[in-house]
From TrEMBL:
Record carries keyword Cell wall biogenesis/degradation: no
Protein family per UniProt: Belongs to the purine/pyrimidine phosphoribosyltransferase family.
Protein's name according to its UniProt entry: Hypoxanthine phosphoribosyltransferase
Signal sequence bounds: none
Gene Ontology BP terms: GMP salvage; guanine salvage; hypoxanthine metabolic process; IMP salvage; purine ribonucleoside salvage
Pathway this chain belongs to: Purine metabolism; IMP biosynthesis via salvage pathway; IMP from hypoxanthine: step 1/1
Xref: Pfam families: Pribosyltran
Gene name linked to the record: LOC109068075
Keywords: Cytoplasm, Glycosyltransferase, Magnesium, Metal-binding, Nucleotide-binding, Purine salvage, Transferase
Domain called Phosphoribosyltransferase: residue spans: 80-232
An example Gene Ontology CC term for this record: cytosol
Broadest EC class assigned to this enzyme: transferase
Native source organism of the sequence: Cyprinus carpio
């Protein structure tokens, strides 16, 4: 098995031995070695249950949320780097096809915009091209940090544009997978030629259906995250990093 070479833990003087070991374990589980099986790769970057995130002070975030967050879970730069790679995978698979990107609002707007931007850059710098139309659909099923049974789909009336097309659904977060299954059934009814799904985050939830998007950014523990357009009752979309909300934040913005 390919392994990363790190000369010695002394090269990282600010880390305790435990932190260093846990970093190495995380690295092993995320390793891009050719021997890794496809299932591991399919989950994207796997964030383990005991990942504490980064202290807020190591990054910048809006002053108005300073008491409302527990930690930076995935920094904005890491999200962008991972998105760039997903764009490349999508280009490798779909390049030279026409696609309709179906952005799932509201949470998916930032990921979709960045993913489309990355694909555009790749198109400019390669001899493949990927003509894209972008459409929007809105789903709503969360109140506070709890999923509710009733899923509202808005903008579903005019999905007839998807008929016979290659569709790329772009969603910020998949948790149980039930919402995505409902959406897929809905989109399939319009007889597209092909459907692929890109999900930035997949949450490990006990009640999960096991559904995995075709392109996954990160697999995360079962924690409520905000930022990068993900909200808690419409707050925190104006935060660049993906963060864990504090108890105080939950109280403050509860309805
Ligand atoms: N954050 C924001 N929206 C969500 C989440 C989450 O963790 N899970 C499902 N929708
Ligand atoms: Mg929401």
């Amino acid at each position: 098995m390919t392994s990363w070479r790190v000369s010695s833990s002394a090269a990282l003087p600010k880390w305790t031995r435990e932190e260093f070991d846990s970093f190495n374990e995380l690295k092993e589980s995320n390793m891009a070695g050719r021997e890794r099986n496809q299932t591991d790769m399919d989950k994207g970057i796997v964030i383990p249950d005991d990942w504490p995130g980064y202290p807020l002070d190591l990054f910048t975030s809006p002053e108005h949320y300073c008491e409302d967050l527990e930690c930076v879970y995935i920094p904005h730069g890491v999200i962008m780097d991972r998105t760039e790679r997903l764009a490349r995978n999508i280009m490798d698979d779909l390049g030279d096809h026409d696609i309709v990107v179906l952005c799932v609002l509201k949470g998916g707007y930032q990921f979709c915009a960045d993913l489309v931007d990355c694909i555009k850059v790749l198109c400019r710098h390669s001899n493949k091209t990927l003509p894209m139309r972008v459409d929007f659909i809105r789903l709503k099923s969360y109140l506070n940090d709890q999923s509710t049974e009733d899923l509202h789909i808005e903008g579903a009336e005019n999905l007839s544009v998807l008929s016979g097309k290659n569709v790329l659904i772009v969603e910020a977060i998949v948790d149980t997978g039930k919402t995505m299954k409902t959406l897929l059934d809905h989109v399939e009814a319009f007889s597209p030629k092909m459907i692929k799904v890109a999900g930035l985050l997949v949450k490990r939830v006990p009640s999960g259906t096991g559904y995995l998007p075709d392109y996954v950014g990160f697999e995360i523990p079962n924690r409520f995250v905000v930022g990068y357009a993900l909200d808690y009752n419409e707050y925190f979309r104006d935060l660049n990093h993906i963060c864990v909300i504090s108890d105080r934040g939950k109280q403050k913005y509860k309805i």
